[in-house]
Amino acid sequence: MNRSAKWLQLSTSAAVLSAALVFPTAVGAATKTTVEAHAEWNSFLQQQYGVTFDKTVTREQFEKALLKIVSATTSISEKDLSAKTFLPASKDSSKLLVWEAVSAAAKAAELKELGYTYSEEKVATALKKAGISYKKGGTLTLQAAQELAVAVDTGLVSANALKSASVEGAVTAELASQLLAKVAEFHGSAKNYLGTIADEEIFGKLAQAWNESQIIKAGELQELVDKGLKQNLITGYNLKDAAFDPHFDPQRTITYGHSDIAHAIQLIALLKSEGVDAKVQFEPKTSAFIYLKEWGEPVQTADYQVVQIENGNYIAYAKEYDLSLEFDSVEAKKKFQPLVLKYAKRDQEDMTGLLKASWWQPLYHSRTELADYAVITNNVLKDGRYVVQSFSLNEESPKVVEGFQKLNAKVKVETYKFWVDQPFFHYLNGESK
Questions:
Q1: What angle do CA 159, 165, 166 make, to 5 degrees?
Q2: Exposed, middle or buried: residue 412 (CB in 10 Å: 0-12, 13-18, 19+)?
Q3: For a disulfide at 127, which of 7, 132, 226, 243, Cβ 3.0-4.6 Å?
Q4: Is the pLDDT of residue 415 over 80?
Q5: Is 276:386 a contact under the CB 8 Å cutoff?
Q6: What's the start-to-end Cα distance of the chain, in Å?
Q7: What's the angle, vertex CA 268, arms to CA 264 and CA 273, rounded to 5?
Q8: Can you list the positions of beta strands (E) in 271-406?
Q9: Residue 407 above 90 pLDDT?
Q10: Exposed, middle or buried by CB within 10 Å (0-12, 13-18, 19+), for 42?
């Protein structure tokens, strides 16, 4: 029996490397229309920070949202940030002008020092790209003009977005969303992914990400869940690093887990050949499960390690991965399962016409409802950037939560329901194929 087969029998978890790619520019973007770009910014801000805007944006709304994003992406608390303001002083406490919002965003994105190195000539050159004429003694102070100029040069705001607005005009919801999403990006909290399926370099990026990943270790958190493993509270778990969270739209995202990188490359190539595109994030994962002593002496490698426990069995730690795929639409997301069931689901030992290393029970899941998927529970423990997940049937989740709380009364176990493929659901119910 190979390692994957052993793991599939026992583990409920069958389940910087990535590059933070920029949000699309607003007006005139080659790949997205203004409407599509605005929808993406809005979706991201609402999901990650609970931020939404009406057609017009007030100073209070914008600053509150800005403080929320900066506090979530830095070590500075929102309470401490509230003692200061990124917005310049104004006689009108409600109206938010375009130049004020861009100035505040430049400061929040930690760009002001660079901006203040700009000479008047350099400022004029940068602002000319945005259709803004800068003259000393004009409407904008030199400092404000420097902040706008550095925002344009770094892409914090698109030149085209400023061309379509007056610097003394009111801030639209579209411009506010763009600025806030870009501030999050400058702090490393934008959508986080390697590339897209259509990207010609995606296969090399996947291989490189796998080669650079290694078994994850999480100290006291891992010691706690290993105790649960020894006591048969759970039969397995996976360990991930939240730094690789893609921040994708759950409505359009599926996460697929496996242990063979060639399988991932073939899966992406399959989707590409079928005309399906998606953003692709590689999330390193360590899968832990019980390795029985009757299976024989385990062979250890850098990607597969074991620790013997009191009863003679072992806890095995295996390097694996999750692929998070954010499809272009919900309809494109629905095309994923038929392809997996046809080309990546093993139904017999000698089966041909499958992707390399296809599993009897593939594991992929969605945070939002999909037809023909089953609902199970994820039991989650966190410590800093480390996240432990153990999947269970819904009716078994309370026992898992209670068990961990008995091991450590202070531990917090988060639970949520999500949708998985039927083969993995059958596995959780004790079926081997």
A1: 110
A2: exposed
A3: 132
A4: yes
A5: no
A6: 15
A7: 145
A8: 278-291, 304-308, 314-327, 363-366, 374-383, 386-392
A9: yes
A10: middle
DSSP string, 385-426: TEEEEEEE-GGGHHHHHHHHHHH-TT---EEEEEEE-HHHHH
Rounded to the nearest 5 percent, the helix, strand and coil shares of the chain are 40, 20, 40
Residue with tokens 């861009």: 102
State the DSSP H helix or E strand holding residue 256, giving kind and residue range, or none if neither: strand 253-258
Closest among 162, 183, 181 to 172, alpha carbons compared: 162
Q: What is the pLDDT of residues 368-406, one digit of tens each?
A: 999 999 999 999 999 999 999 999 999 999 999 999 999
CB-CB contact of 264 with 206 (8 Å):
yes
How do the domains of the chain map onto residue ranges? 3-18+192-428, 34-186
- pLDDT tens digits, 182-201: 999 999 888 999 999 999 99
50: left (phi over 0), alpha (psi -120 to 50) or beta: left
- Are 235 and 379 in contact by the 8 Å Cβ rule? The answer is no
Backbone angles phi, psi at 416, to 5 degrees: -155, 150
CA distance 120 to 117: 10
Q: Helices then strands (H, E): number in the chain? A: 17, 10
Provide the angle, in degrees to the nearest 10, between the axes of the packed helices 261-273 and 336-343. Answer: 120
Exposed / middle / buried, residue 316 (Cβ in 10 Å: 0-12, 13-18, 19+): buried
Strand partners, 316: 289, 306
Residue pointed to by tokens 């973007």: 29
- Quickly tell me which residue has 């770094």 as its tokens: 154
**Which tokens is 115 given?**
């901006």
Distance CA 397, CA 388 (A): 15
Reading the block at residue 377, the tokens are 């529970």
This prediction has a pTM of 0.86
91 backbone φψ class: left, alpha, beta (φ>0; ψ -120 to 50): alpha
